[in-house]
Design brief:
GO terms for molecular function: hydrolase activity. The protein has 152 residues and is an alpha+beta fold. It has 3 helices and 10 strands; from the N terminus they run αββββαββββββα. The strands form 3 sheets. Strands 1, 4, 6, 7 and 8 form a 5-stranded mixed beta sheet that branches. It has a 3-stranded antiparallel beta sheet with strand order 3-2-10. The N and C termini lie far apart (44 Å).
Length: 152
Amino acid sequence: MGYIDEIRKLVGHRPLLLTGAVVIIEDKQGRILLQKRAYPKETWGLPGGLMELGESTEQTAAREVLEETGLKVNNLQLLNVYSGERHFSIAENGDQFYIVTIAYLCKDYEGEMQIDGSESVDIQFFERDCFPVKMVGSHREMVQDYLKKAEA
């Protein structure tokens, strides 16, 4: 049982403040890696997840990417921090949370892509102008922010 599960037993569905990290992984052709998530069902997003006790956000990002894609990320670059009222969510089970998401960029990675099966149903690189329609809204915002900075 993870940290969040333990907290939920104590507070029920009341709002929590959670910290997470995602990574925009760009390949040599400039494509962005996305994962089709098991939850929310059939929705694409960036690899990443929630911080565990004692982790840094960089460790969270690296752990989550490895778990979800099989890739080891190197030389993470901080892109931005996303937080506030717009980042409030209610899960299907009624759990409420505000998430603070730290977004990183990685162009230096190694390993073979592997779908983990429990959190991902597919992973693939997408051209910059060809992202899936069904994508986590905040992740789409993060990718668009990155692409604007990269073009500037």
